[in-house]
Amino acid sequence: MRLDIALGLSFLLLTACQPSAHNVKETRFLLGTLVEFTVFTDNEDAALDAINQAAQAMQKVEDTFTTFGSVKNSVKAFNQAKVGQTVKLEHDVELLLVKALKIHQQSQGAFDPTLGALNELWAFSGESPASSPPSPLKISRALQQTGVQNIEQSKGGWQKKVAGLKLDFGGIAKGLAIDKGASVLRKLGFSQAIINAGGDMMVLGSHGNKPWRIAIRHPRQDKPVGWVTIDKDTSIVTSGDYERFYMYQGRRYHHILDPETGYPARKSQSVTVVDSNATVADAWSTALFVLDIPNGKRMVETMQSMHVFWVNAQGKSLQSSGFKLHQ
Hints:
Blueprint: H1 3-17, E1 22-30, E2 33-41, H2 44-65, H3 74-80, H4 91-106, H5 116-122, H6 136-143, E3 151-154, E4 157-160, H7 173-187, E5 193-197, E6 200-204, E7 212-217, E8 224-230, E9 234-240, E10 245-248, E11 251-254, E12 268-275, H8 278-290, H9 293-300, E13 307-312, E14 317-319
């Protein structure tokens, strides 16, 4: 056999034994939903280890912010505290509360981290979800236990000004958890991946030499309204009235509450936010769902990094100038 032929055959045998890049997938139950990790790599063992570390980081966020179960945290301590009692919040809790308060101000009150009592009343979360709306009187009373003006930072911690007020980070903590998980994957050298937490996701890089293709769910039909292509680190978060809801006397009641009325917001069926940061996208998808669309669109157009797609209450699609939907 000629030497050049032998070398050629050796090269073919060597390359045939090399693992090719492919999707490595793992699914975990975190944050009250199924979280799917997808890592595009040729090192499956390292990817699975990275996914495990990312999941641990996300679980830590859940333990830090949850208001359910037996795990102890400073959110529960604040919620159980009496009026005027100072509670020292964990560092990550305080940072997220400050961010939530800023978004509350920017969104003209549409995002509110003090709706714990109201969310408990509606009971869309937990082991025994409700199937009928609470009475107007109960809603009115719960509204009196909300409002960012009723919490204040003092030396050594935070206090509430009205009895029964409870913090609830359900509209922002999932985004933080996704950001934390994505940060772990990046630090461990994986720059092409997706973390999908029940439709809220962070996309890292591209899918090999092609962009990722992400479908946007239709809020009323079993098909996507279209898709977006992603080739750099980007979060995509959707808030919709189809996620946790029930029908009562022909009317849909869902878990995204309007802080002003105390009832489920009615101006949209779904809102999808694209931003570089999942924490920001998570909170703003909630805020923009609550806001009327013209007002929300004006806000979005001032944020160069954020792009938004709405399906309004009548099922009509609208989008901000920077949102690129493929159909």
